Amino acid sequence: MYFENKPQHFASEGIFRVNGERAKIEELSIYLTMGDFSILQKYEDSPNEVANFMKELIRELREPVCPFNKYPSFRDIERSCSPG
User: Which of 24, 29, 30, 67 has the highest local Cβ count within 10 Å?
Assistant: First the structure.
C-alpha cells in the first residue's frame, strides 16, 4: 500500500539501490513485524527506508520469490526482452 498510495516514490533516485538510514530501517522492522503499520505515516517521505526494509524482508525469506523450478522460464523471458 505504501508505494501504491505514493506512486511518485517509484521515481525517487535509486529507490532500491540507495541505502536508507539504518536506525530508521530498524524502527520500521520492529513496528511492521509487530503488525503496526501506522509507523508508515511517519515515513511518508522516506521511500528509501521503506524500500530497504522490503529488500531485507525478501532476502530473509526461506524460499525465493521466484521458485527454483520457474527460474529458467524467467531467465528465458528476460533474454527474449533484451536488445541484441
Answer: 24
Residues 6+ apart with CB under 8 A from 71: none
* Per-position b or e across 24-56, b if 16+ CB within 10 A of its CB: bbebbeebbeeeeeebbeebeebbbbbbbbeee
In angstroms, the CA 62 to CA 56 distance is: 12
- From the centroid of its chain, how far is CA 60? 12
* Helix residue ranges, H only, 1-84: 2-5, 22-33, 39-42, 47-59, 71-81
Which tens digit of pLDDT belongs to each residue from 11-68?
888 888 888 899 999 999 999 999 999 999 999 888 999 999 999 999 998 888 888 8
Backbone angles phi, psi at 67, to 5 degrees: -60, 145
